[in-house]
Description:
The chain is of the alpha/beta class.
Amino acid sequence: ELVDFGASDVAMTDEEIAQVGRGVILLPMTAGCVVLAYNLPDVPGLKLSREVYVDILLGKITSWNDPQIAAINPDVTLPDQTITVVYRSDGSGTTGVFTKHLSAISPEWKEKVGEGKTVQWPVGIGGAKNDGVTAGIRQTEGAIGYVEYGFAKSAGLNMASLENSSGNYIEATAKSATATLEAVVLPENLRAFITDPEGENSYPIVTYTWMLAYGQYDDAGKAQGLEKMIEFGLNEGQQISGEIGYIPLPDNVRQKVLETADKISPDYNMTLK
């Protein structure tokens, strides 16, 4: 127990929580999209169906003018260019979220590759962290890779509109991500894996980012200080998260998080603004 709290894009499992003697509280503090960013300068507004983007990542579709891509982009002139997949070479929550989604929508992906913070990618080149993948996409014409929405947006990368579970092609925006969150019911433990969300306007790859706190703190000052920090995150922090490319929490989620976090310290009462 070297730290007083942590954070992760992937919620702890029951097995992991059971190893922590003081218990664990999972607190969603913000959310984000994982996007498929691509480098095709003359092809804005690319659409990718679920089957197509899985097949690209499996190495079954290797050229941008493949008939399957062309069929869902009839108004776009696609180049006869090799597709280069760029993936995370380091273990990451982004990879965990993305591969969990791929496993949920594709039995073939689940069987051949599976999910995890690191996986054996069938094709492509690796880049370290979101920065490395973003740089790899920018430097390689014909590249496609998965990164957090904020990184792709700040780098000015094109992002594909992805087919959701309702069959609609949805662009990653704060609005479409919020639609996803609103369609998800948070359980009492605040741990929701959003692998293939429902909703006509839901963007298909969205995850919460959790603060991981202990169930109890022996140091009353630390407990009170942690509650004050969480309170700031649920209020002023939500505006900041939106400004840097993350998704502010819906009010009903903020309320649930506050009710759970307010149990950390008996000496402080949290409020929402």
